[in-house]
Amino acid sequence: MEVVFYITVLFYLLSTAGYLLYLFIQKNYLHQTGHYLLITGFLWHSAAIVYLFIQTGTIPVHNLRETFTVAGWAVAGVFIVFQYKFNLKILGIYAAPLAAIVMLIASQLPAEFTEAKNVFNNFWLVLHIITIFIGEASFALACGLGILYLMQERAIKTKRHGFFFKRLPSLELLDYTGYACIVVGFTFLSIGLAAGFVYAKSVWGKFWSWDPKEVWSGITWILYAVLLHERLAVGWRGRRSAIMAIIGFAVLLFTFLGVNFFLKGHHEVFTRM
User: Fold this and answer.
1) Is 160 exposed, middle or buried (0-12, 13-18, 19+ CB in 10 A)?
2) What ranges do the domains of the chain cover?
3) Reported pTM
4) Dihedral angle at the C-alpha atoms of 240, 245, 251, 252, nearest 10 degrees?
5) pLDDT tens by residue, 118-150
């Protein structure tokens, strides 16, 4: 299992190298190399997760190492789908390193064996976990697109058509793709939260218990809901939307990690078991 884990990390690192070379040299074969290496890493990654699932009979999120592993898998998988849909080649310079970094962090965490608990066999919990991770991965990509948007906008406004201006796509494409990521992320986050409410009712007897994770998840949901509403109703686009995508992901990171370390609640069990 450890061999498969490190093979996955290796392919993500090689993919990162390929995308970075593409950023500097701008040859299509370098982009294709980085992309195929990422897909290969994702397949190895998927095999590792399937193996853990077969071994335990549950989704492998029993400790922080496994949680990071699934998070990295979601980032790579969602990026592959968006790459196929929008063919935004330059996004690989953000997605591949992000997947690699998440997996490198996971590799430094203890791999202690934890006996699976029956709660992980609950359908609503499984649905909650899968959709939440897909939603968070989509928001991570939206954050990256927001950063690229701000970089390109600055190059245009300062009229310094240098390194990044020649390599980044149009502001319209960056904005539209970022919006698509947020729509997908918000949809999956909403499904995940709804499934979490049903699961909470079946386990703790109530849909909402003011658990810190629930509260911050609600704050995250409201933030992205406001962003989507303002975009549709008021016309928030471009710079404002990019900044909100970055802020939203920062809040999401605190919800994903900070709450577990600094606040006590039901969800602590899923990352510290």
Assistant:
1) exposed
2) 1-118, 122-267
3) 0.88
4) 170
5) 555 677 888 898 999 999 999 999 999 999 999
